[in-house]
Write a structure and sequence with these properties.
The complex is a heterodimer of chains A (108) and B (117). Chain A is an all-beta fold. In chain A, 0% of the residues lie in helices and 59% in strands. In chain A, strands 2, 4, 5, 9, 10 and 11 form a 6-stranded mixed beta sheet that branches. A 5-stranded antiparallel beta sheet of chain A has the order 1-3-8-7-6, with no helix packed on it. In chain B, strand 4 and strand 5 form a beta hairpin.
């Protein structure tokens, strides 16, 4: 079976740094994606990790440890527009298995 | 360039009716995926097309659900005898090629919100 866990909600302040964790137990693994989804909109791609380590892309970074079944998304210099749901997804063969998403609320 | 488009954006129907949901993938993308997302949940895989053929339909919940992609571009998700439990946002995504072993990203459309009364 597939199990992907992430916190339901997080809150943070504008300008701060926040880390969203994701743990997974899946029958296979070909990589891990992070998507951002604003309410009523499509998920948009943020990052992809297939090897262990940190991938940095502007204000967003993503980390993967395959031996621990663990990833995190790091958001720096938070802005109000970063308030959204953040979805962790594991790719196996050709399909994505998503977690339930972490709703991030950024306050002034 | 144009992204993935889906029509209609909203669909309200009555229990027992038949509905069709359409997806136009990004031009040139050979892989197309359908997902279903309920409130407060992540997207749930339904079916994956590589070209015209359904390469994996293991996520379709039952035989009321069917999807086609006759020319390898536009896809239609068909739901027969709709039930209230079918109410959800149906998302379509496309990628340049199959993802297994590679890093092709899936690009999502805005979804169709289906409400079954």
């Amino acid at each position: 079976g597939q199990n992907i866990d992430q916190p339901t909600e997080m809150t943070a302040t504008e300008g701060a740094i926040v880390q969203i964790n994701c743990t997974y137990q899946t029958s296979g693994f070909n990589g891990l994606f992070w998507y951002q989804q604003h309410a009523g909109e499509a998920p948009t791609f943020l990052s992809y990790n297939v090897l262990d380590g940190l991938e940095e892309k502007g204000r967003f970074s993503s980390f993967l440890s395959r031996s621990k079944g663990y990833s995190y998304l790091l958001l720096k210099e938070l802005q109000m527009k970063d308030s959204a749901s953040y979805l962790c997804a594991v790719i196996l063969y050709s399909t994505l298995t998503f977690g339930k998403g972490t709703m991030l609320l950024v306050s002034p | 360039g144009a992204g993935v488009s889906q029509t209609p954006s909203n669909k309200v129907t009555e229990k027992g009716k038949y509905v069709e949901l359409r997806c136009d993938p990004i031009s040139g993308h050979t892989a197309l995926y359908w997902y279903r997302q309920s409130l407060g949940q992540g997207p749930e895989f339904l079916i994956y097309f590589q070209g015209t053929g359904a390469a994996d339909d293991s996520g379709l919940p039952n035989d009321r659900f069917f999807a086609v992609r006759p020319e390898g571009s536009v896809s239609t998700l068909k739901i027969q005898r709709t039930e209230r439990g079918d109410s959800a946002v149906y998302l379509c995504a496309s990628s340049p090629t199959r993802l297994a072993g590679g890093s092709d990203t899936q690009y999502f459309g805005p979804g169709t919100r289906l409400t079954v009364l």
